[in-house]
Amino acid sequence: MANKVDVLLSRHQKLKSEKATLHGIYELISEYVFNKKYNLEKTPNGGIFVDGDIYDNTGLRANSIMANVMVNNLWPNGPRTFKVKPTWDTSDTQEIKAWFKHVNSQMHTIMDNTRAGLVTALDEYMLDQGSFGISGIYVSEDETDLSCPIRYTAWDIKSMCVDEGTDGLIDTVFVEIEMTIRNAVKEYGLENLGSKTQKAFLDGNLEDKIKVLHVIEPRLDRNPKKYGAKDMPIASIHIEICSRKIIKESGFEEMPVFVGRFIKVLGEKYGRSPAMVAMPDILEANATREAISIATEKQLDPPLAVYDDGSLGAGTIETSAGAINVFSVSGRINNGKPIEPLYTVGELQSSYNHIETLKESINNHFYLDRLLDFNNETRMTFGEAQLRNALRGQSLGTFYARQEMEVITPMIKRTFNILLKRGLFGVLQNSIEELELLKRGIRPIYIPEEIAQRILSGLDVYDLDFISPAKRTMQSEELQGTIETANFAVSVAAAVPEILDNIDTDEMLRRIAKLSGADEDMLKDMQTVQSIRKARAEQQAQIMQLEQARQQSEIGRNVAQINSMQNANNGAAA
Questions:
Q1: pTM listed for this prediction
Q2: Angle of CA points 310, 313, 314, to nearest 5°
Q3: What CA–CA distance (Å, rounded) separates 79 from 88?
Q4: Which of 114, 134, 196, 283 has most Cβ atoms within 10 angstroms of its Cβ?
Q5: Helices (H), 382-504
């Protein structure tokens, strides 16, 4: 059997060769959208900036605006953009609702912690989505931090090679990391590094650098009956490249890095981006802006024409402000000017108009015409404005759906799993964790029995609800249809009351609240609703009984009065 290190290094070289075809466009994007240059190793270098040949930054500006707006559409309220809720077949009891409220509170608090770095990671992630078309979010567990046990980090494609699984999602990531020997010893331990690195450390060469290959992929040789780090479903292997030695091997229960593609063409692994589509316009705008700069300079300081028929300025022409040039006018032809501007530049307005056209085209490639709308020239009714906004939003629906599927949802699920494992969602009754909390004088929060049974049975425990402009955009048609159905039923009910028998009003209300992004906490759980209805029905029944008793009493009294009157009349007649 082939050596594991040789297999992984060979696969890494093949994946690098696949990605090599994209280096050309990546270099252009890095230069014209980030003003940053690749080095020869095709790894990012933050200290090399390119601005000498950059005359137009429309691409950089458009990408920054697009990234900011899309992050706010997908994640507008931070972690409160989503809610964890019971699955459709889970009991809707007060206990379960209270537990999910606690789960949401814990997740929102931890993900919103500045130490977690989620907002920064999403911003960097989306900038690379708009420029390179592919990037990832790495969700790591910090076992030393009890208050914030999760860290979020953006990973860029410049240092990654990826591969897809059979489902079309990225399930393999090779990351080449360059680090100092000092940091390598701190991360992996001196005894685990190669002999040359150990010697360099002992010799005091702490700032020398080594390269480490981090491989994250499904583990095909695992034993599913074992539970050790080397038998987890996802393998995590660190290889020191120079010594070809595994310096750390562990695993994950689920994929820890989630790679999204902005647009993906069938048959391709790597995504395509707005910057790639806009690159011809970006290059033309840069060239046109450069030409305008040169032409404007010529206009401000035009080239000069000098007659070669006399002595002028002792052979030197001084054109600075207030300069004096001494020249001889002997032999001057037709008394012409000894020096005069040589106009070589025409009008520039057409060039400025062309720049504006290119800028508009670049902005449209980055979807700014759909993400932003400052057009106040056309007056519209409220309905027309709603329809236009719906159409603009729907044109971005596929992008939002891909981001939700490839990155946002699995990122939240991994966060849930880590916090559940750390006991932050509660403990099971009669468990070791419960006893430890009780010994410390802490009142434990218990996981409901039904939820615990679902976890142990491997069933889904929760669903995700997103509350964001992006989600409302994707659900706008269903919301509009639901409201129109309700309005139609109410309007027809005046003539045909039986039509309301077709509508489950409880379900309709909850559906409208969900589609419109309302907070579900404002709705009572069905158990409470049924209790309220039962109490109301009992109260109404008691009222009816009292009313019936009163009516019967009234009837009895009336009958007694009638009998009394009849007896009196009969006595008088006798």
A1: 0.77
A2: 85
A3: 23
A4: 134
A5: 382-394, 397-403, 409-421, 432-439, 449-457, 469-493
pLDDT for residue 12? 93
Single-letter code of the amino acid located at 305:
A
DSSP 64-124: HHHHHHHHHHHSTTGGGGEEEEE-TTS---HHHHHHHHHHHHHHHHHHT-GGG-HHHHHHH
Q: Give the Cα separation of 201 and 187 in Å (integer).
A: 14
Beta strand residue intervals within 165-244, DSSP E:
170-180, 209-218, 234-240
Residues paired with residue 236 on neighbouring β-strands, in sequence order: 216, 250
How far is the C-alpha of 57 from the C-alpha of 50, rounded, in Å? 12
The answer to whether 119 and 263 are in contact (CB under 8 A) is no
The label of the residue with tokens 């130490």 reads 115
Q: Find out whether 135 and 444 touch, Cβ atoms under 8 Å.
A: no
CB 359 within 8 A of CB 330: no
DSSP for 270-309?
S-B-HHHHHHHHHHHHHHHHHHHHHHHHHHHS--EEE-SS
Contact 173, 216 (CB under 8 A): yes
Contact between 451 and 93 under an 8 Å Cβ cutoff? The reply is: no
Q: Is 230 exposed, middle or buried (0-12, 13-18, 19+ CB in 10 A)?
A: middle
Task: Let me know: does 96 contact 308? Beta carbons within 8 Å.
Answer: no
Consecutive 10-residue runs of the chain (574 residues): their mean pLDDT? Answer: 84 92 90 76 52 84 92 80 86 86 91 91 94 94 84 90 91 92 93 93 92 93 76 92 92 93 90 94 92 84 68 63 66 61 76 91 90 60 56 73 91 93 86 78 85 87 81 66 78 81 78 67 73 83 83 77 74 63
Q: How far is CA 127 from CA 27, 75, 182, 252, 253, in A?
A: 16, 15, 31, 28, 29
Contact between 155 and 58 under an 8 Å Cβ cutoff? The reply is no
C-beta neighbour count of 441 within 10 angstroms? 6
**Residue 29: which of 221, 401, 342, 279 has the closest Cα?**
279
Using DSSP bridges, classify how beta strands 245-252 and 234-240 pair: parallel, antiparallel or unpaired.
antiparallel
Six-digit token pair at 241? 């490249």
Alpha carbons within 13 angstroms on the beta-carbon side of residue 102 total 18
Ordered by start, the domain boundaries in the chain are 526-574
Name the 3-class secondary structure at 348.
coil
Helices and strands (DSSP H and E) totals, the chain? 18, 14
Beta strand ranges found along 142-256 (DSSP E): 150-156, 160-164, 170-180, 209-218, 234-240, 245-252
d(CA 436, CA 42): 52
Token pair recorded at residue 466? 């997103």
The amino acid present at 246, given as its one-letter code, is I
Closest residue by Cα to residue 450 from 202, 182, 92: 92
Q: What is the pLDDT of residue 43?
A: 46
Burial readout 116-129 (b: 16 or more C-beta within 10 A, e: otherwise): bbbbebbebbbbbb
* Six token digits for residue 310: 């006399």
User: Which residues are registered as beta bridge partners of 153?
Assistant: 138
> How many CA atoms, within 13 angstroms, populate the side-chain half-sphere of residue 334?
3
Contact status, residue 150 vs residue 415, Cβ threshold 8 Å? yes
